[in-house]
Amino acid sequence: MLALPSTRLLLLFGESLPSSRLPNVSRKVWGQTSVRFVSQVNPDNGPLTLSSLGFKSDFEKTNKIKADKIERLDVPSEAPKSKVRGVGSNGIKTVNAVGVKKSLEIESAPFSAKSFSELGLPPLLLERLDTAGFTVPTDVQSAAVPTILKGHDVVIQSYTGSGKTLAYLLPILSEVGPLKKKSANGESEFEKKKEIDAVIVAPSRELGMQIVREVEKLLGPTDKKVVQQLVGGANRSRQEEALRKNKPAIVVGTPGRIAEISAAGKLHTHSCRFLVLDEVDELLSFNFREDMHRILEHVGRRSGADPRGSIAARRTIMVSATVPFSVIRAARSWGSDPLLVQAKKVMPLEAVSPSGPVNILKPTSGSDSSMRTQAALQSLPPALKHYHCVAKLQHKVDTLRRCVHALDAKCVIAFMNHTKQLKDAVFKLEARGMVAAELHGDLGKLARSTTLKKFKNGEVRVLVTNELSARGLDVAECDLVVNLDLPTDSIHYAHRAGRTGRLGRKGTVVTICEEPEVFVVKKLQKQLGIPIPACEFTEGKLNVIEED
Ligand SMILES: Nc1ncnc2c1ncn2[C@@H]1O[C@H](COP(=O)(O)OP(=O)(O)OP(=O)(O)O)[C@@H](O)[C@H]1O
């Protein structure tokens, strides 16, 4: 019986989750498309407001401040609201882009028609949400919170930037720590104990730290020690000392560090009630195999107890914008009556089959890669605009610079695949007067967090990075994502693209590629089911090239 989870794990890893690659780039030249017409695009795609969602309920007023904040982020005040040919007041010509929606449609905004108070959260947590500025739940939060509170194991799938973190944090904080529900006798009986109540696992330090900050925001300054970070790269003995001294109820960390401290006997998780795997498809990839094995075996397990019973006692919450069928299969075997939670849909995982009626997971041809593609389609914020631009290798960085100027982008993430080229790109951008910084795994923890802080503050305009930043990184102001190198597949495209356009904000994704790589973009376009028209950056404008 003890070997059961391992067997399950191996089954899952056998499916080689995220590594399907697009075909290698051939030397075939994409010469069929003629440049017939060049149109110019305003990077405005309309504001997100609660009234734009058609909400007229009581809580609309209380949410106005928040909505206004989002609206201000969305639309430069001088930007014209309608798209007509001609020059806007900001000097940008404004015509409809090829295949781009005219305005933000209702379904592209993630806010739910419910208020947080309808979700069954305890009063203190509701107060803290309000103080932290969270007034309306998103769709996925409205679906996930009551479902988890009812005790179900869940897989949460919803597009990037739709608020999945709070979707699992709120039910945890309802039952764990100082904000939790009062017991039957009216007492809030939070007391420090030796065991951990919730373990949250994330694939990168940055994402782990981000989750910690989100928890701390709700806990407030006096209770922030209820959560402890256990990320790699930081001083391990200090983390162990903090665990001993503070006796946190929640730990958030990377698989390696959690497994290491657990193996050293310094992390007591046997009676843990929640295990969250954030970016689950990444966590269950080969890279994390051994550490995840340990975590899945030890978290929520009580020594001497029937292993099946202890697995049922732990609620397992798996989260990602991209959920391939292999994750569904794993979740079924680990959970008890697990459910799939999406923004507007909750269904038993048992009902999900590769050829069943669930659109995101239903393969068109039965192959695993087509399943991944369907998942990628639902992982993209609907309001994002996508373009590609052809440039010679040696001109890519200059094209990036012109792209940033043409879109007047303030906060840009540029993705590359190799560290050396990434450093060169930063050097070239800086030499041309654009404030840029590098972020990749070769940097130490301090350098990484300093760079990220500067980027979030607006001190750095272009962050040149690699896959490290593709998952989960939340920088609300990011208005442009550029692929200076192609992503390996549509799943990776979706996670990179999802760094912009968060929570219904506007965002643009530009893939700069060489001519022989255009067919890969065409393939991505087809797999993701989105238009990625060609564009150029001339005279300080983004010009869309219409295809015949
Ligand atoms: N109800 C809400 N009201 C306002 N802001 C919210 C709400 N829920 C979440 N947010 C904010 O929205 C941003 C995106 O949320 P989050 O990072 O949880 O998205 P995600 O779906 O996990 O994205 P990804 O798939 O990229 O990890 C965060 O800055 C978060 O604080």
Number of helices: 19
- Indicate the overall shape: globular
* Total separate domains: 2
Report the sheet with the most strands, covering strand number, pairing sense and barrel closure.
Answer: 8 strands, mixed
Outline of this structure?
Keywords: ATP-binding, Helicase, Hydrolase, Nucleotide-binding. The chain is an alpha/beta fold.
Features:
Rossmann fold; 14% strand; 548 residues; six-stranded parallel sheet; eight-stranded mixed sheet
Helices and strands in order:
Elements: H1 4-13, E1 38-40, H2 59-62, H3 64-74, H4 123-131, H5 139-149, E2 154-157, H6 164-175, E3 198-201, H7 205-219, E4 227-230, H8 236-246, E5 250-253, H9 255-263, E6 274-278, H10 280-283, H11 289-298, H12 307-313, E7 315-320, H13 325-334, E8 339-342, E9 345-348, H14 368-377, E10 385-390, H15 396-407, E11 412-415, H16 419-431, E12 436-439, H17 445-457, E13 462-465, E14 480-483, H18 490-497, E15 508-513, H19 518-528, E16 534-538, E17 541-545
Residues 134, 136-138, 141, 158, 160-166, 321, 472, 474, 476, 498, 502-503 line the site of adenosine-5'-triphosphate (ATP).
